[in-house]
Amino acid sequence: MSISNLDNLFTHKIHVRIDDMIYGHHLCHSKFINLIHNTRALFLKKHNLSEANCFGYGLIMLNLNIDYINQCFFDDMLEISLNIDKIEKAKFLLTYSVFNRTSNKLAANATTLMGFMDIEKGKLKRVPVEFLNLINNISNNN
Q1: With left for phi above 0 and alpha for psi between -120 and 50, is residue 99 left, alpha or beta?
Q2: At residue 130, does pLDDT exceed 50?
Q3: What domain of life (predicted)?
Q4: Is pLDDT above 70 for 17?
Q5: Disulfide-capable partner of 77 in 57, 96, 101, 129 (CB 3.0 to 4.6 Å)?
Q6: What DSSP string describes 24-71?
């Protein structure tokens, strides 16, 4: 299933904190991972879900890719947009855009391939119908 009419699933804004900095005086590359993880967690929380329980299943990250484009600095205001690019049997691809509102530059693009897992059995499971309904409801309201 491809989601083409969904412009933006969720957006989160955050300032770069001093403890996000690296010795080169810019945002540490590994902190980008924390930023997108936090955005994903906040999206789930907004819908009373979590990575431990998303419609009865756990969510696991199967792949992560980040393209670093521009540096960010202490106290820059970042806007992280989350979207779903595609949904397949037991997996879905989340895309993230990290835009630096302070410099008006794109800071990074990222993707995470997520899977629904029956934690007790250790097996991937089909994307729950309730999750598909949630995404469809969001896209219909945008």
Answers
A1: beta
A2: yes
A3: Bacteria
A4: yes
A5: 101
A6: TSSB-HHHHHHHHHHHHHHHHHHTT--SS-BTTBEEEEEEEEEEE-S-
Burial category of 75 from C-beta neighbours within 10 Å (exposed 0-12, middle 13-18, buried 19 and up): exposed
Q: State the pTM of this model.
A: 0.90
Q: Are 69 and 137 in contact (CB under 8 A)?
A: no
- Tell me the backbone φ, ψ of residue 43, rounded to 5 degrees: -60, -45
**Fold designation for 10-141:** Thiol Ester Dehydrase; Chain A (3.10.129)
Domain ranges of the chain: 10-141
Percentage helix, strand, coil for the chain under 3-state DSSP, each rounded to 5: 25, 40, 35
> pLDDT of 94-114, one tens digit each?
999 999 999 999 999 999 999
Structure tokens at 129: 């119908």
Query: Is pLDDT of 142 > 70?
Result: no
Q: Are 72 and 26 in contact (CB under 8 A)?
A: yes
75-to-17, 30, 78, 97, 102 alpha-carbon distances in Å: 6, 17, 9, 18, 9
